[in-house]
Amino acid sequence: MRSPILLGSIPSPSDNIIHLGPIPLHMYGLMLAIGVLVAVKVAEVRWVRRGHPAKELSDIVVWVVIAGVIGARVYHVVTDYELFTHDWLKAFKIWEGGLGIWGAVVGGAIAAVVLARRRHLDLGDLFDCIAPGLVFAQAIGRWGNWFNQELFGAPTTLPWGLEIDPSKRPSGYGQYATFQPTFLYESLYCLALGLALIWIDHHVKLKKFQLFALYCMGYTAARFVFEEMRIDPAHVIGPLRLNAWVSIAVFLVAFAWYLWLGRHGEPVVRPDATGQDVGDVSPSGLKPDSA
Asked: What is the 3-state secondary structure (H, E, C) of 187-242?
């Protein structure tokens, strides 16, 4: 790898693989794995704090993760099908990059709903417990894009501009050396969003599923901005990239869902210090706790 010390810019790794003896380790896959582990741990801690046995979550988490990864890859292959028309086997090479977050959410959500119903788990608590860990996983996963030198923004001369190898620069940008590090912006934002969701969950009275709706709104609002900053090839519909339109649609649906839950949702029930359940009877969403 290049020296990490370079005044006035952020260097990119010259290789996205490290070798553990004879074993090649793809950094994109490693970042994905670390993100999954963090997400699972955060969800497990939150699940237990809501009064549920840890084993309930551990029994389903592997299947939810697998479904999420499959959904993420399917979303990428479908929305960028032209990348695979001449070599369909590339669709299975996830270590080279290409996982769509909304495919991951849909795939994981389907698995969670099916398994929760079969095992009689509280689906609202499950989605709300997963939300902060999911956004932390996204924060970690974006560093896989750094190793792959992908998903960066327009050329920039800012001190934190990201160095990109000539072979990785899009057509028409070969004369530029540094670009907006959108992977870093999104990673830092996701970290802040995850912490904000945890704070809100502890200090604001919400109905079940409202925290997950806030995750969807919070992420898509920023994703719209980051998506429009990027210069990598993408499908464009009218004035916006495809994923920008998806962000708008998901935000609007999540906002309407959040408002509906505020009036019709089921209150969150938390165990108090004695282990007894204490219901949240607040009739609306974002109202501070009195305690």
From this structure: HHHHHHHHHHHHHHHHHEECECCHHHHHHHHHHHHHHHHHHHHECCCCCEECCEEH
Domain count, the chain: 1
Quick: pLDDT tens for 179-226: 999 999 999 999 999 999 999 999 999 999 999 999 999 999 999 999
Q: What long-range pairs does 12-20 form, CB within 8 A, spacing at least 24? A: 12/146, 12/149, 12/162, 12/163, 12/164, 12/165, 12/168, 13/146, 13/147, 13/149, 14/165, 16/147, 16/148, 16/149
pTM of the model: 0.85
Asked whether residue 6 is assigned to any structural domain, the reply reads no
Sole residue written with tokens 């992420």:
219
Residue 227 belongs to a domain:
yes
Task: Return the exposure string of 282-291: e unless at least 16 CB atoms fall within 10 Å of the residue's CB, then b.
Answer: beebeeeeee
- The residue segments making up the domain with residue 81 are 25-288
Is 13 a member of any domain?
no
